[in-house]
Design a protein that fits this description.
Strand content: under 5%
CATH superfamily of the largest domain: RNA polymerase sigma factor, region 2, helix turn helix motif
CATH class of the largest domain: Mainly Alpha
Shape: elongated
Number of strands: 0
Largest sheet: none
Length: about 200
C-alpha cells in the first residue's frame, strides 16, 4: 500500500490517539507511513534486502511494545530510527564475531599455527569468552570446572574437595552440557579441541 495521503496532520493526530492505546489499526497506519523509508535506509546500511526486512519488522514490533513511551507522532520516526540504528550495529557486531570464530576454528584445524605461544594466545582468548558462561554455573559445579580447566585431573579434584570421583565427572558433564547450549557451535568445538575434552 502506498503511503500517499497517509501523512496529513489531522489523520496522524487522530491515529496517534489510538496508537497510544495500542490499537492494531493505528499501529498499522504508522507502519504503512514509515515502512518504506525505514526499509530503504536500513537496506543502504546493511546491503542485504532480506536482513533489512527482518530488522524493519523487529523494529516495528518493538514500537508496538513501547507505545506508552512515545510522546507525539513525530517521536515515532525518531524511535524507529534510533532502534533501527542500534539493531544494525548489533547485526554488524554479530557478523564480525561469527566471522572471527569461524576463522579461528579454520585456522586451528588447518594446523598452520607456528608456536606454542600462539596456541596459548588462542586458548586465552577463547577462555575469556567462555568464562562469562562458566560464571553462571552453580557454585560447586563452577569451582570443579575451573579446577579442571586449570589442569587438575578428576581424581585430584575429588581428593582436594573431599568428594567422590564420580561426583566430579557428573559435575563436569553437566557443565559441558550447559555450555554446549549457550556457546556457538564453532567456539564450543574449538574449546573441546584446545582443552582435549571429550564431549559426552
Amino acid at each position: 500500500m502506498s503511503n500517499i495521503g497517509l501523512n496529513r496532520p489531522d489523520d496522524r493526530a487522530r491515529q496517534f490517539l489510538s496508537f497510544k492505546k495500542k490499537d492494531p489499526a493505528a499501529i498499522g497506519y504508522f507502519y504503512q507511513l514509515h515502512h518504506r523509508p525505514l526499509y530503504e535506509m536500513i537496506r543502504l546500511w546493511i546491503r542485504n534486502d532480506m536482513v533489512a526486512e527482518e530488522i524493519v519488522d523487529d523494529v516495528f514490533v518493538k514500537l508496538s511494545q513501547k507505545t506508552e513511551t512515545i510522546n507525539d507522532p513525530e517521536h515515532i520516526w525518531a524511535f524507529l530510527y534510533n532502534v533501527a540504528k542500534k539493531d544494525c550495529v548489533t547485526h554488524f557486531r554479530n557478523q564480525k564475531v561469527q566471522k572471527a570464530r569461524q576463522i579461528d576454528l579454520s585456522y586451528w584445524l588447518s594446523g598452520n599455527y607456528e608456536s606454542s605461544e600462539e596456541v596459548e594466545m588462542i586458548k586465552n582468548e577463547l577462555l575469556a569468552n567462555i568464562y562469562q558462561y562458566v560464571e553462571k554455573l552453580p557454585k560447586a559445579r563452577k569451582k570443579i570446572f575451573k579446577m579442571y580447566l586449570e589442569g587438575m585431573e578428576n581424581g585430584e579434584i575429588a581428593e582436594k574437595l573431599g568428594i567422590r570421583r564420580q561426583s566430579v565427572v557428573n559435575h563436569l558433564g553437566k557443565a559441558l552440557k550447559y555450555l554446549k547450549t549457550v556457546i556457538p557451535k564453532n567456539e564450543f568445538l574449538l574449546f573441546l579441541i584446545l582443552f582435549s575434552i571429550q564431549d559426552s
